[in-house]
Amino acid sequence: MKFDNIIIGGGLSGLTCGIKLAEQGKKCAIVSSGQSAIHFFSGSFDFLGKLNGQEVKNPLEAIKTLPDSHPYQRVGVENIARLAVEAPLLLNRAGLSFLGKADQNHFVLTPMGIMKPTWLTLDDFTRFEQKNTFPWKKAVILNFSGFLDFHTLFVQDGLKKFDVDSQVKNFAMKEFEAIRRNPSEMRSTNIAKVFDQGEDALNEFAEKVNLLSEGFEVVILPAVFGLFNKNVVANLKSKINKPLVLLPAIPPSVPGIRSQIFLRKRFEELGGTYFLGDNVEEGTLENNRLVAIHTKNHGDIKLEADHFVLASGSFYSKGIVATREKLYEPILGLDIDGDTDNEKWLDEKFFNDQPYMHYGVKTDSHFRALINGQPIENLYVAGSVLGGANALKEGSGAGISVLTSLHVAEQILK
Ligand SMILES: Cc1cc2nc3c(=O)[nH]c(=O)nc-3n(C[C@H](O)[C@H](O)[C@H](O)COP(=O)(O)OP(=O)(O)OC[C@H]3O[C@@H](n4cnc5c(N)ncnc54)[C@H](O)[C@@H]3O)c2cc1C
């Protein structure tokens, strides 16, 4: 099977890269072995939340001071500024409304009741301009009886710091009787499916919420609405007669899965082919070019392309792997940007900047992968499989994933 471009990995990076290429008329395929980090998505895409331990107000300004090895510096500050405008538009064309600006972080309330700086927030969630103020003084935190993946007491505790007087209330609905019998069934996605199925459950729920929120200024609920049907959140907001603040629950993330579904749908509507549940096992290299990849499900059928993109994620998705003996990229054995001495991978102080978090696949200045220092001319690398940043520490995960992907797509389109 022959494509213009094949992308290995169907997470946020693979999908944004694939959509951009497909929008330009390229015949693309994405091969993805499994779930991606989007299934754990908080509702916000971070660009740069912290630098040297300090909170960042203007990420576009702050990235100018990052080291040369950081993916943002390697893409180039001007390119990043341009692509940061393009990214929400691309997401929007996929039916996902993300709001925010790259030159001014806003804040979102975390499930721990803390305000966190971020770049783009899905419109399900509430964006706050100030870190230290919560606009309401009396809040009701509501949860479904038996739903253990929303920690109301953490939220309540966090809100105390904003002088918010809050009360936690649990409630039951007959629609959840069946799934409540088994705690492993009482999960966010199963709750969301009940509300996806029809207006009746949502109407009954909204009535309950309105009753329980009497005397309060704002309602706080777990983000378990709109798995396949994106109108559920807007519908719910219109039926509740107080402002509604949704907070992420423990994964699987309902807005995350919805985002993944929408991005994949957009890619396929543009003519892209998405091979889900297939693992790329190896590739054929000839004269410093990757000519084909071989996957578990396709067996002897090789997948060929003019250009390939490796967007296989970091350790979490096995884009790179560490054993006791070595650190490696499992498909082609690409060069790794990381220490060969495993004694240096970890800092014994858990909260310090962990060295291994900076590791990833090494690339040349065009983001092409290397083997023994030689670039593979048609294999580009994007997203969290790249090294050069501790995305967790600096709050830059989605920013690096989306913006390096768009940049790599531009390299291919040149
Ligand atoms: C648990 C978790 C939660 C996060 N939440 C957020 C958040 O809320 N906001 C934020 O800004 N950042 C978040 N991040 C940071 C995250 O790195 C980025 O946001 C981004 O989603 C990463 O996208 P990616 O496509 O590079 O990698 P991934 O999402 O890891 O996707 C890689 C994909 O490649 C596939 N793959 C791997 N190897 C192969 C192979 N051999 N063959 C075929 N497919 C393969 C995997 O199955 C996976 O689907 C989170 C990270 C993690 C780990």
From TrEMBL:
Listed GO CC annotations: glycerol-3-phosphate dehydrogenase (FAD) complex
Pfam (any one): FAD_binding_2
SUPFAM superfamilies: FAD/NAD(P)-binding domain
GO molecular function, one term: glycerol-3-phosphate dehydrogenase (quinone) activity
Residues in FAD-dependent oxidoreductase 2 FAD-binding domain copies: 4-400
Keywords from the UniProt entry: Flavoprotein, FMN, Oxidoreductase
Signal peptide: none
InterPro entries on file: FAD-dep_OxRdtase_2_FAD-bd, FAD/NAD-bd_sf, G3P_DH_GlpB_su
Presence of the UniProt keyword Flavoprotein in the record: yes
Official protein name in the record: FAD binding domain-containing protein
Lineage of the organism: Bacteria, Pseudomonadati, Bacteroidota, Bacteroidia, Marinilabiliales
